[in-house]
UniProtKB/TrEMBL annotation:
An example Gene Ontology molecular-function term: isomerase activity
Source organism (scientific name): Actinopolymorpha rutila
Keyword Metal-binding tagged: no
Keyword Nucleotide-binding: no
Lineage: Bacteria, Bacillati, Actinomycetota, Actinomycetes, Propionibacteriales
Protein name (Swiss-Prot/TrEMBL): Sugar phosphate isomerase/epimerase
One Pfam family it belongs to: AP_endonuc_2
Alphabetically ordered keywords of this record: Isomerase
Domain Xylose isomerase-like TIM barrel: 21-269
InterPro entries: IolE/XylAMocC-like, Xyl_isomerase-like_sf, Xyl_isomerase-like_TIM-brl
Length: 275
């Protein structure tokens, strides 16, 4: 297994700061969500047609991989034109990811009503949109990975979604806090989704439930991180354990200069291959 961190945890960093932080702290890769305070990465010069070759060269010079490219793509809208724009965004990010040597882009399921006919209609619409996006990104040599998030935190919820548009293209990004805080045992999530899991988000918390959670430095909360890593190791997972420190959304939590090095130090004690 390899270590990466999401730039959600250092949203104001430049690309050089991101790469030097990764190199200095022994990370294998980074996951791009923010850069220079901007979340619309496709609009930045670093990811333009002219800028991409230089950006790839900077990754290569730093010896750091792009573990995953994060998007805000989701297909909840009933508006056909809006869903078409989301599909095109998935294609755009897949092309950027491919140019930078990354195999994955992150997509969302989004929120659906708790019950009633609208719930079924929305879930079906999301499933069909994700299936189309996954096929489109596959054409670029990139896998779209659905994060366990929003209304699709557990394997049961994801399974229902997939039943509306069965496909083999869509991967899963397992954000373990979200499945675990909904009461789903780690083994159950893996048994149901393991064949699709391509990427992992990890963060610690000391107080969590289906409706809320807090943020703790790694190892200072009560998430069963050691158990989780042990499960992945037994099952032969060789992908990234990506630290998602939500600094951009929660500015009151510890600074990236504290949290990002601390995660790497803690995880190296748990994952032999990263020592």
């Amino acid at each position: 297994m390899k270590l990466s961190f999401s730039t959600l945890g250092c949203p104001k960093y430049t690309l050089d700061q991101v790469l030097s932080t990764a190199s200095d702290n022994g990370y294998d890769g980074v996951e791009l969500r923010f850069l220079r305070g901007e979340v619309g990465l496709h609009e930045l010069e670093e990811f333009s047609a002219q800028g991409l070759p230089r950006t790839r060269a900077r990754f290569e010079q730093a010896g750091v991989e792009l573990a995953c490219l994060d998007t805000s793509v989701r297909f909840t809208s009933p508006d056909k034109d809006e869903r078409a724009q989301q599909l095109e965004a998935a294609r755009t990010y897949a092309r950027i990811a491919a140019e930078l040597g990354s195999r994955y882009i992150r997509v969302f399921g989004g929120a659906v009503p708790d019950e009633g006919p609208e719930r079924t209609e929305t879930t079906k619409r999301i499933a069909e949109g994700l299936a189309e996006a996954a096929a489109a990104t596959r054409a670029e040599g990139v896998t779209a990975v659905l994060e366990t998030h929003d209304s699709f935190c557990t394997s049961t919820q994801v399974g229902e979604l997939l039943s509306y548009a069965p496909n083999d293209d869509l991967g899963i990004l397992w954000d373990v806090l979200h499945s675990y805080r909904h009461g789903e045992p780690l083994e159950q999530t893996w048994q149901a989704l393991g064949e699709r899991i391509r990427h992992v988000h990890l963060k610690d918390s000391g107080s969590y439930s289906p409706t809320d959670f807090d943020f703790r430095l790694t190892g200072e909360g009560t998430m069963p991180i050691g158990e989780f890593v042990g499960l992945l190791d037994r099952e032969g997972y060789t992908g990234y354990l990506s630290f998602e420190w939500e600094k951009a959304w929660h500015p009151e939590i510890e600074e990236p200069e504290v949290a990002i090095p601390q995660y790497a130090e803690y995880m190296r004690k748990l994952v032999p291959a990263t020592r």
